[in-house]
Amino acid sequence: MDKIVSLAKRRGFVFQSSEIYGGLNGCWDYGPLGVEMLNNLKQSWWRAMTFRDDVEGLDASILMHPRVWEASGHVANFTDPMVDCKECKSRYRVDVLLEETSVKKKKEILRALEPEAFAGQLQDQKVIDEFALRIAADETAAAIIQNHMTCPNCGAKQAFTAARQFNLMFKTFVGPVEDTNNVVFLRPETAQGIFVNFLNVQNASRQKIPFGIAQIGKAFRNEINTKNFLFRTREFEQMEMQYFVKPGEEDKYFEYWREQRMAWFISLGMKPEWLQWHKHDKLAHYAKAAFDIEYKFPFGWGEIEGIHSRTNFDLSQHEEFSGKSMRYFDDQTKEKFIPFVIETSAGASRSFMAFLTAAYSEEMAPTGSGGEEQRVVLRLHPSLAPMKAAVLPLVNRDGMDDIGRKLTNDLQKSFRVFYDDSGAVGRRYRRQDEIGTPYCFTIDSQTLVDQTVTVRERDTMQQERIALDAVKTYLAERIL
Ligand code: GAP
Fold first, then answer.
1. Residue with the nearest Cα to atom 24 of ligand 1?
2. Are strands 439-443 and 389-393 parallel, antiparallel or unpaired?
3. What is the DSSP letter of 352?
4. What are the tens digits of pLDDT across the range 239-254?
5. How many helices and strands (H and E) does the chain possess?
6. What backbone torsions phi and psi does residue 217 show, to the nearest 5 degrees?
7. DSSP state of 299
8. Cβ(377)–Cβ(354) below 8 Å
9. pLDDT at res. 424
10. 238 lines ligand 1 (CB under 6 A)
């Protein structure tokens, strides 16, 4: 991970947000190459999901009517436990408090909470940490914390209040008056924008069930634990699709979308063995089935996308809370009903990190002088790569630079292409390998004679000569 985070910063994929002020936890900025790659990823998802007859696109606003989040259950249930110090009024989330406390204290707490488990397995720091996080969601953990913990800020003993639920939604206000009547939330998922627009989209597009609505957009969660780079952040992007089906047909479409979504990751270069399904045994009360696609990150398996069979819960809730019908009229059977929903919910930022991690590779490669050196190469799928090609005149004179510039200008009408005329050509190849550029076109003295260029492929490092005027087609065939 450290190597990837450092490459991401050095080469301009991802920067810490507000870095010069010490950063802001859980927020990251995408640099010049990062924004290209993220856009490519989102475009690939958009093409796969909406370039078909039965899925429409949507871009709903981030701020929505606050009743939306009451109807969806987020106001009541999207919470984590939190305690206050009665002496100094500092506020802590139970998970964080437990996580940051000493091993000795953790053992004391865990022994009090679950003596059997402690005796059996809690020997090392990692297991203790995981266990601490797990029990933090438990009601009884609060009492233990009250009795055993010292306030890290003022040192007061047994001064914590009972745990209260802390909502993960960010609040803000609409209009000039900051009072409770004007509270709105930054959406914690894009899905609700789709649900509330279900009939608008259906009427406007004259879709018939089954059909879906897809959306890409920012989501915000005041997460407790923002570790692991882009994995869990407070501001992130989701790529979600709700597929509306006739009740009774949900199992068939659930399986269909599971297959489609796994195939999408593999089509972009993920090896099947780096991905696995995680079946949810404990389901939300409204869910019929839920599976996550997990990727093997350097820190362990982590969810990158959830596929959920959500019954008609959300639409029914919105019908009840808004008083407006959310029913679909089937003009063949003349029936009116609330459709069931299959949801596919991927994190754009989290998938970005998975693809970046999967692409990173270090290997020994031959140098021009017969030796070997280490090269870092991002084996990104060409459609995700931020730069599609580099144009490299061997020397910056004799007309090679003019040909290179002309070729670059021509290619830039269709692709992101990088022109580089500085340093030894081997060094220039390495710089492109490190950012995942799939093809380098080199202009040399032979180009001046026969109008051909060398193409060098990133992964194999194989080179071949092709005609200068064939470069654009060559690239288009391999990139698009
Ligand atoms: N509408 C359903 C929903 O939002 P979720 O499992 O909470 O489901 C879906 O989130 C996806 O969004 C996850 O699989 C993950 O890729 C991404 N995601 C969720 N929370 C995130 C966070 N704090 N930071 C980055 N990505 C996150």
1. 232
2. parallel
3. H
4. 999 999 999 999 999 9
5. 18, 23
6. -175, 170
7. T
8. no
9. 92
10. yes
Question: What pLDDT is attached to residue 128?
Answer: 66
Q: Model confidence over 303-358: pLDDT tens digits?
A: 999 999 999 999 999 999 999 999 999 999 999 999 999 999 999 999 999 999 99
- What is the Å distance from ligand 1's center to 422 Cα? 43
Among 224, 257, 303, which is best to mutate for testing ligand 1, by the most ligand atoms less than 8 A from CB?
Answer: 303
Which alpha helices (DSSP H) does 306-399 contain, by range? 313-322, 348-359
Average pLDDT over residues 111-140: 63
**Signed CA dihedral, 33, 39, 40, 42: sign only:** positive
Ligand 1 contacts CB of residue 354 (under 6 A): no
- Annotate 376-441 with DSSP letters as a single string: EEE---TTT-S-SEEEEESSS-TTHHHHHHHHHHHHTTTS-EEE--SS-HHHHHHHHHHTT--EEE
Q: Average per-residue pLDDT in the chain?
A: 91
Asked if residue 366 has pLDDT above 90, the reply is no
- 145, 345, 335: which is closest to 238 by C-alpha? 345
- CA-based nearest residue to 248, from 330, 189, 148, 183: 330
Q: CA 289, CA 338: separation in Å to the nearest integer?
A: 18
Closest C-alpha to 381, from 1, 43, 24, 57: 43
What the block records as the tokens of 94 is: 């139970």
- The two three-digit tokens of residue 11, written as one number: 């080469």
Report if pTM > 0.85: yes
What lies within 8 Å, CB to CB, of 243 at 6+ separation is: 55, 210, 211, 212, 253, 257, 341, 342, 343, 344
Q: How confident is the model at residue 104 (pLDDT cuts 50, 70, 90)?
A: confident
What's the rounded Cα separation, in Å, for the pair 209 and 54? 9
- Scan for tokens 């007061």, then name that residue: 156
- For a ligand 1 pocket test, name from 345, 349, 353, 355 the mutation site with the most ligand atoms within 8 angstroms of its C-beta: 345
